[in-house]
Amino acid sequence: MKISGFTITRNAVKFNYPVLESIRSILPLCNEFIVNVGNSEDQTLELIRSLKDSRIKIIQNDWNMAQGKEVLSYQTNLALAQCQGDWAFYLQSDEVIHEDDLPKLHKAMTRYLNDQNVDALRFRWLHFFGSYFRYRNDSGWYQKQDRVIRNNGQIISVGDAYGFERKDKRPLRRINTDCFVYHYGWVHSAEVMTQRRINAERIGFTSLAGQERLGDYAYGNLERFPVYFGTHPGVMKERIKTHPRSQQDYALIRFRYWWNPLRLFKIRYKTFRRLKQRL
Whole-angstrom Cα distance, residue 194 to residue 123? Predict the structure, then answer.
């Protein structure tokens, strides 16, 4: 069995994407890793080259931003086309996998390798918000998605590259892994978050009011969101340790939830109860 990892990245330094951590998190599973690096305004290409791993293959492309948000699926499919593995494992630049889930994922890929009734492996999502210890579970934040697909040329990335579909439009046949994708796209300084949202508007993801483009992004009161008591992927240790808002939030959590067994045993748990959006 051969496993290909693949991702796309652009302006990773400017927007503080944890792309190196993302790649490193699944590299132990991969026989090769394809990185599509877009034309950037920073040192993204040098950052990827710094990994110095023979399994990593870099392709460079000029991203046509006139495509809108579909530019992401278009570039994702260019990277996918370079994959040679039986399975293709896709992560975006702000998505990371926990090392404790790697054996389970390898076992699933081995088990279903020759089962043509399985197109994809599905993950549960942890969308961290404002702090590495708070996550979104409310309306508008998808909670499951596919990230490992059978590399048979019949499955492609679609839309804004959040997921995949079959070329024949039949539903993807998927297996739930109960593994997590740790999504860190909303854990940044207020200044970086504002710049990222302006960039998202340029691509076509959102529409901002004038004041939102000028001021720093406001996360609001983080206590309205569920607490994450579990461990994070080991590759994220330094980022978490040096993130002031998260450290302040965790001090509050330790004080308020000192009795909670999920915190005491660092259990990787996410509530199954979908919360209504609370502003």
Answer: 28
Alpha carbon of 59 to those of 48, 79, 139: distances in Å? 11, 8, 36
Residue 168 backbone dihedrals phi, psi, to 5 degrees: -85, 5
Instruction: List phi, psi (to 5°) of 201.
Output: -65, -40
Instruction: Pick from 173-182, 201-210, 270-279 the range whose average pLDDT is largest.
Output: 173-182
On the question of pLDDT at 195 being above 80, the answer is yes
Tally the C-alpha atoms within 13 A of residue 71's C-alpha that lie toward its C-beta.
Answer: 20
CB neighbour class for 277 (10 Å; exposed up to 12, middle 13-18, buried from 19): exposed
Cα–Cα dist 11/171, whole Å: 34
CATH number, position 125? 3.90.550
Domain-embedded: residue 41: yes
User: In one letter, which amino acid is 167?
Assistant: K
**Whats the size of the chain, residue-wise?**
279
Contact 22, 7 (CB under 8 A): yes
